[in-house]
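Why should sequence recovery work at all? Because a backbone constrains its sequence more than one might expect. Tight turns favour small or flexible residues, buried strands favour hydrophobic ones, and helices have their own preferences. The token representation captures these environments compactly. In the example below, the structure is given first.
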């Protein structure tokens, strides 16, 4: 989605439309616009798959193990296949993503009745119901985890539950930000009506900014709630700091050597 912002939203917002008219007619413009739909739907499905996996582990710990990599890979593969299929279906039934530079908003251009029905039946419902399902499922997981945690006695089990708690906190944070982003995006006309926003494009710009924040929150939450990722990030910063100090020290030593040679040459020349 951020790629769409960089390749479509920002150029068409800042530059005159006459400069980009040729670009708008190319296949690259269509691909970059569809990148927003692709990224949005893929993020929804991946987040939904992660939530289903966490919910299954918390609810049925005897049936679902915590370290089943094959199950995660299947979730990822299915999410990609569904997203690609949805893009193909959109193209077949003339559902196109476009950008309105005057209103600072992305919109769907639907050129067929069947495309309109498919869009309303899947895309809109997916964007509307998924945040609610995610939010409810994570609340249920927290309640279930808290109840079960009182019965857990062994150190090994406690470690597993602590790991699951970190995953839940990360998913809950992403779901919360996604819920807000979805409300702003899908109910923009309602917000405009309630707050009597005279210039709608400024609110649309705010929504676009919030979409970027939502995308970034996925990576940020990983470093906040995951100790391994956080430790790796701290290690990288230490390495960069050490390398910078080493470069600074080497440069300083080279300067001192050059200065000493220059002083020695001047002393020799003045004799």
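From this structural description, the recovered sequence reads:
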């Amino acid at each position: 989605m951020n790629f769409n912002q960089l390749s479509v939203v920002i150029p068409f917002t800042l530059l005159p439309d006459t400069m980009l008219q040729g670009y708008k007619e190319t296949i690259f413009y269509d691909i970059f616009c569809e990148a927003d739909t692709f990224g949005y739907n893929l993020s929804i499905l991946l987040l939904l798959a992660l939530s289903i996996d966490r919910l299954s582990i918390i609810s049925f710990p005897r049936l679902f193990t915590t370290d089943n990599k094959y199950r995660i890979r299947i979730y990822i593969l299915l999410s990609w296949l569904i997203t690609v299929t949805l893009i193909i279906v959109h193209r077949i039934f003339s559902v196109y993503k476009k950008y309105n530079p005057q209103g600072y908003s992305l919109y769907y251009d639907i050129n067929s009745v069947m495309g309109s029905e498919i869009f309303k039946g899947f895309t809109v419902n997916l964007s509307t119901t998924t945040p609610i399902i995610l939010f409810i499922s994570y609340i249920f997981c927290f309640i279930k985890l808290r109840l079960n945690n009182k019965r857990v006695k062994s150190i090994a089990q406690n470690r597993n539950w602590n790991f699951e708690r970190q995953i839940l906190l990360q998913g809950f944070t992403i779901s919360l930000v996604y819920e807000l982003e979805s409300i702003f995006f899908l109910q923009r006309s309602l917000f405009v009506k309630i707050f009597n926003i005279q210039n709608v494009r400024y609110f649309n710009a705010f929504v676009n900014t919030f979409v970027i924040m939502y995308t970034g929150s996925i990576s940020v939450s990983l470093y906040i709630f995951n100790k391994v990722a956080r430790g790796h990030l701290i290690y990288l910063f230490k390495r960069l700091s050490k390398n910078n100090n080493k470069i600074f020290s080497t440069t300083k030593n080279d300067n001192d050597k050059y200065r000493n040679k220059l002083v020695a040459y001047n002393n020799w020349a003045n004799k």
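A few observations help interpret the result. The chain is about 80% helix and 5% strand.
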